[in-house]
Description:
Blueprint: H1 2-14, E1 23-27, H2 37-46, E2 51-54, H3 59-64, E3 71-76, H4 81-85, H5 88-100, E4 107-113, H6 117-120, H7 125-141, E5 149-151, E6 153-155, E7 159-160, E8 169-170, H8 175-188, E9 192-195, H9 198-204, H10 211-214, E10 225-226, E11 233-234, H11 237-250, E12 259-264, H12 279-294, E13 309-311, E14 360-363, H13 369-380, H14 402-416, E15 430-433, H15 484-494
Parallel strand pairs: 1-2, 1-13, 2-3, 3-4, 4-5, 6-9, 9-12, 12-13
Antiparallel strand pairs: 7-8, 10-11, 14-15
Helix pairs in contact: 5-7, 7-8, 13-14, 13-15
Amino acid sequence: MAVFLLLLILLVSAVSGDEKAFIGVNIGTDLSDMPSPTQVATLLKSQNVRHVRLYDADRAMLLALANTGIEVVVSVPNELLLGIGQSNATAANWVARNVIAHVPATNITAIAVGSEVLTTLPNAAPVLVSALKFIHSALVASNLDSQIKVSTPHSSSIILDSFPPSQAFFNRSLDPVMVPLLKFLQSTGSYLMLNVYPYYDYMQSSGVIPLDYALFRSLPPNKEAVDANTLLHYTNVFDAIVDAAYFSMSYLNITNVPIVVTESGWPSKGDSSEPDATVENANTYNSNLIKHVINNTGTPKHPRIAVSTYIYELYNEDSRPGPASEQNWGLFDANGMPVYILHLTGAGTVFANDTTNQTFCVAKGDTDLKMLQAALDWACGPGKVDCSPLLQGQPCYEPDNVVYHSTYAFNAYFQQMGKSIRTCDFKGVATITTTDPSHGSCVFPGSFGKNGTVTNGTSLAPSLNDTGSGCPPQYFYGGDSLTTSVIIGACIFLMTAVFL
């Protein structure tokens, strides 16, 4: 016991707590309709994301991120690792083309050499440390080594017997790689990159790990996991894995290399064999993770020591193979619409939807225009939305099309109904977003506007239809191929349909 407590004291004193933790996001590209780099950068800025990790060093993406101030981790893909690990010149050429060509305009702060190489590409393991050293040498030659760190992400599965954390250790068959790797990280002032997925630990535990323990939910003291060697109490799987990595390093005599979690998240949808891959659980996990990290909570072994973390991931990747969960780790869909609204009140500004509580209801751009027209007419009629700002000559008339006008009307109804999620559906043609659709002099209800004052038209919501048909003629759009007969049909439909 005394040995463990002494080791704990040494570890706490060795890892610096000066740095403030941050939340970043991974950007995968296995989408059938991948947004353009410019669209990606726009979404990142709108969500106040200041740290991203790329799985490559795509030139167009790096150019789109230029002059944004966003800190970027670029990656050497696994398929290039053998070549770079065996040739200093190849590594130098990669750095020149993918890093030097973009800094300082693009704020590259780290290079991830490969991804989970020791567990997914074991034949490249012998050259992994050489690859890191060659990349670092190229940075030194360009005087960039002080601002750009070099490391490689590991799966947490390289840690054996991870609980209790004080008894955890790296798979000893990996020592020929891990020992020189950790010494390299130590000598260059870099950090251990670790992928931490409590979802998989929970799924593979066959009920041993409680769901609440995996999701950061509050536990009564008698339900907390206790490390008998250190008497430290663990309230979540994430902390236990991170501390297990710290102890694993200590057994290799490395006590001053910090950890950055390069991937963590929870899927919002799964197959029948994945019942806990749900929107609610994904929201709970990521919301709690963000608060846990940016509050500098640290871990039981290292309280208030930064454990910066990149959420996996920005977009749902619908082209990824495997079970349904593989396609549903994203915070947003390909259109930039949130899969769910994170519960982040009081957590500080990370994503735009954390403390401002600004959410809006917008029309889906790929929806049947007839359905949009019908829903718009309902909102401006029976829905009692004040649609007068959409009239010609008024601030929200332009652009004069059914998608934009529907967005205004849907959002106005959503706001006046207290932003209840069920009031933003309209038979499937609307969705919730955290991006303010206001523009120019057109300030949407619920927006803080230019002067910081919330705009809410709930007191001005008269019916614009004196006949009760729900189809005010001033909102018909001849330019959108809607014929009179179609509109009349939509109006008849509206008399019997409920859009919410």
